[in-house]
Design a protein that fits this description.
CATH class of the largest domain in chain A: Alpha Beta
Strand order of the largest sheet of chain A: 2-1-3-4-5-11
CATH superfamily of the largest domain in chain A: Response regulator
CATH topology of the largest domain in chain A: Rossmann fold
CATH architecture of the largest domain in chain A: 3-Layer(aba) Sandwich
Distance between the termini of chain A: 74 Å
Number of helices of chain A: 12
Oligomer: homodimer
Strand content of chain A: 15-25%
Helix content of chain A: 40-55%
Structural class of chain A: alpha/beta
Number of strands of chain A: 12
DNA sequence: GGCGTGCCCTAGAACGTTCTAGAGTCGAAC
DNA sequence: GTTCGACTCTAGAACGTTCTAGGGCACGCC
């Protein structure tokens, strides 16, 4: 039971059905060139022997592997959602996915190296932190699609959300509710922090609220949000847009501890629509990225490259949408 | 750029270094049988050509694949933690991991099938929902290790947490704080719900609190917890142990909405130490599973099986530990 | 009856590795 | 001066598949 007897191969099935190996291959691939009768017989034998094709040998021989390598980060609810979408998209066009995770003790370089050895035909990287130069080198070897980050490098394809627009949505929503004194807590040195910050500034100006413009340095984590809360409390705005959901919850915790109620005293908007932001407990108004569209486009782009298509523009930018929940309301007064 | 020129193979390196293919193979595998000088030269050439071994061909030829297939569920913070541990453990003993995800639209059967085609040497399943019979069939084909679930089937190895003991810890903690009227909201038909429920009952009896024993039907999700809250409020205990963290947050939301404060009016203990339970906002006292130990043992067991060892006991049970946070305190009065 | 033309099937090479068996060289021991 | 062993290296088969080229065979057409 442990691992003793060899798994059946094409040859075993062929022998059992008294046909050639090639014919069994034809039947298994559902390729033309076999009569209905033989086809049925071979399939029956294969089923009986519990034959499973060896994808390694298959790919080895047939050269082009219909295999997409995906690098994702563990502990990233967002990546999980994306994986779901990528599986769907890949299946739809007959590609397989092979995953490689980035963990606290396994870096992106290692994850990529593993996939390269599996000889996948293209790489899809979720929020890669690799330096641009390295991404470029990689893209010289095989098609590379980066998601959720912009890469100033011609060889790398990009599929990402229009983060600037995401902040426009957030600010518009708050302004519509009657807010004017709206602050922004940014993501510090994190990817796409700059773009979100700029989106906030542009939106404020568009509404003629440059006098209220105020950016506080934050970060990715809950504690960054908590720290920013301290600074905000000194001169209280009526609303805040946060870099992401995690820092938003940090902020919320401090605000509530200081006796303020949300959204009556202050409105808060997050970013990402992380799964926990849906929890009744947190119930955070936030900006959601269009996961399914992003996944579909990323896979499509990867496959176009594999097929050698010349793609005009490298960067695909998807509009986000606002999810209104319980942390936003009219300003006090 | 796109995918044009073939990647270098052993033959390319061999030609460039004017040695045989076999010798390059020896050098790449770091096997004995090459002089230091040649070794250095071959390595230099390999590096220059940017040679990457083709793991498919390698595994195909060498029969035994040092490859463990892991089936995990997306949107399961817990599984992410486990993956981290599994990667560590596998790397330590020279095995590779290949992942296959279960998503809302990709079931466990599909995930397993994919791994079987990759010819991995053993399967590690995180919280498998497959029927026992199917697991048994699978285990007839290759070693199978199930994590976080018990399987009444001799062929399948199991590595899991002692869930009964987890509830002992929770109840002991509450009793030590002075609670007597402690209820339990179970997981309904979910895996290991029965064991946790029984653990609660045993612990209550051990403390001579059978008079207070009370089990409410719950479930996996937040709404299950919220529903249970309604029932609990009718006859209020001073403390509740919940099936998991997610349902605990559902319960907390309703309790607070009803104007109760936690832990002053009522104490709550979750289960799993999910990442969100750490959020300052939620700050849930909970039972944590020993992830690293579980991962290490699962990999070790899989490898033992691959090597054909006869293992005495199939089931490894790890003790959990209690993480005390802000949702537990002395009872009111 | 010769000759295409489909259709079903098969033999054998190929993919990039690893492995087995053995060939060559050199120095030391008899 | 032969024989042996150790060491370095090589040729070629093998892994399980796909692919190319072609072999029979029946049928229809001249």
């Amino acid at each position: 039971m442990s691992g003793g007897e060899r798994r059946p191969t094409l040859a075993d099935v062929a022998a059992e059905a008294s046909v050639s190996v090639a014919l069994v291959s034809i039947v298994m691939r559902d390729a033309p060139g076999a009569s209905a009768a033989t086809r049925a017989r071979v399939l029956e034998v294969a089923r009986r022997l519990d034959y499973q094709p060896d994808s390694r040998a298959r790919l080895l021989r047939s050269g082009q592997s219909r295999l997409l390598g995906v690098v994702f980060g563990v502990q990233h609810p967002f990546h999980d959602d994306l994986l779901t979408g990528l599986y769907d998209a890949a299946e739809k066009i007959g590609y397989e996915l092979t995953l490689s995770a980035v963990t606290p003790r396994r870096d992106e370089r290692t994850a990529v190296a593993g996939l390269l050895q599996d000889r996948c035909a293209a790489l899809v990287l979720l929020g890669p932190q690799l330096p641009t130069a390295e991404l470029a080198t990689l893209a010289g070897r095989l098609p590379v699609v980066a998601m959720m980050r912009t890469v100033r490098q011609r060889q790398v394809d990009v599929v990402r959300t229009d983060d600037g627009r995401g902040l426009h949505l957030a600010v518009d929503h708050l302004v519509a509710l009657g807010h004017r004194d709206i602050a922004h807590v940014d993501g510090g040195r994190w990817l796409s922090s700059a773009e979100r910050r700029q989106g906030y500034r542009d939106a404020m100006r568009r509404h003629g609220l440059e006098a209220y413009e105020r950016v506080v340095t934050g970060g990715f984590g809950e504690d960054d949000g908590a720290r920013a809360a301290g600074e905000l409390l000194r001169h209280r705005p009526t609303a805040v847009t946060m870099f992401n959901d995690l820092s938003a919850t940090g902020l919320l915790t401090v605000l509530r501890r200081e006796g303020m109620t949300v959204p009556e005293d202050i409105s808060v908007v997050g970013y990402d629509d992380s799964s926990f932001s849906r929890l009744g407990h947190i119930d955070l108004t936030t900006v959601a990225q269009d996961i399914d569209t992003m996944a579909t486009l990323a896979v499509a782009r990867a496959v176009e490259r594999i097929d050698g298509a010349q793609v005009a523009h490298r960067e695909v930018v998807i509009p986000p949408r606002l999810v209104v929940r319980g942390t936003t309301g009219p300003p006090p007064d």
